[in-house]
């Protein structure tokens, strides 16, 4: 007998991955340029030149044995110090190398953090819409996900949030800029969340943590958009970061967990993170790419290309009558489906070779996610298909 929950996860891909695989099949039949695949959040701009330069320098001039060998379990100390120094210079913080634990990307960061914090059946609050794997990660570490329903603006419903907090609440996951909405949680929202958590923690006599999932932090497009750095608003915050989006390195699986000194019992929380990494087999993140990201602190790919795509698809779809909140960041558009059943809408879209993801998986029925980290040509060429789809609903 096998664990049925693991068997279920392994025999059925996520809806996003299923759609991506369907897209590959359709492209083989009708041609790449005839399928408009907006399914996967796979960066479409190249890594910045600094990444290639860093790799070249390390390979040509570095010690091959060290470059491809093990680092310390929690990551190379010089790499961690370099990242801490960068964060301090950027956010006015006071982190050091021992606040950081290098990981194999965002998924590892989240799973390790949850494993480090959760006792069996404790609860983790998530704000809809959210990345569907959060539920998988929480349940995989013995916890229970508690969903706060969405608002029309996709800023968190603060009243519903406070009501969702119980004597089993251990953590809250915050993802801003948000996948799938692209919304950035305002400073006002973050302050309100922090105030609620401080009050409820005191009332319940237990620490409640924020897990800040931040792979899209640098992907914001307007000068007046500021992404609050949550450790400055709430002490009990762990930051999970990945370089997959900022440096266009999703396949390299490199990121970190930040455990600030201000976290309650921070030394033991950090030790628990180390223990969780060990338990899950996530020790020693890729050594060469630890060195690469340290050399590329503060660098990003050409984010202006994503901004151009955002404006192109947002303006194009709203002119056709589609409704959505204009995203401030990330590279997703969360669009109101043209019927209540977003799964049915996605199926009708497939008839036009438009591949968009149902909002049901993001715990927000009636919407679809469009990932615009695609070529500009794909967006332009897709507009007649979106128009034809919308006209079907007018008949």
Description:
The chain is globular. The chain is built from 14 helices and twelve strands. The strands form three sheets. Strands 2-8-7-6-5-3-4 form a seven-stranded mixed sheet, with helices on both faces. Strands 9-12-11 form a three-stranded antiparallel sheet. The chain has a two-stranded parallel sheet with strand order 1-10. Helix 6 crosses helix 7. The model has no long low-confidence stretch (mean pLDDT about 95). Helices cover about 45% and strands about 15% of the residues. Strand 3, helix 7 and strand 4 form a beta-alpha-beta unit. The protein folds into two domains: about 140 residues, Alpha-Beta Complex (Aspartate Aminotransferase, domain 1); about 230 residues, 3-Layer(aba) Sandwich (Aspartate Aminotransferase, domain 2). The longest helix is centred in the middle third of the chain and has 18 residues. It has about 400 residues and is an alpha/beta fold.
Number of strands: 12
- Number of DSSP helical runs: 14
CATH architecture of the largest domain: 3-Layer(aba) Sandwich
Envelope shape: globular
CA(first)-CA(last) distance: 52 Å
Please give the domain count: 2
Strand order of the largest sheet: 2-8-7-6-5-3-4
Multimeric status of the protein: single chain
User: What's the CATH H-level homologous superfamily of the largest domain?
Assistant: Type I PLP-dependent aspartate aminotransferase-like (Major domain)
The value of Rg in angstroms is 21 Å
Find the structural class using helix and strand composition: alpha/beta
Largest sheet: 7 strands, mixed
List low-confidence stretches.
none
Q: Predict the CATH topology of the largest domain.
A: Aspartate Aminotransferase, domain 2
Question: Order of SSEs, N→C?
Answer: HHEHHHEHEHEHEHEEEHHHEHEEEH
Q: What is the helix fraction of residues, given as a range? A: 40-55%
Q: What share of the residues does DSSP label as strand, in percent?
A: 5-15%
CATH C-level class of the largest domain: Alpha Beta
Query: What does the average pLDDT come to?
Result: 96
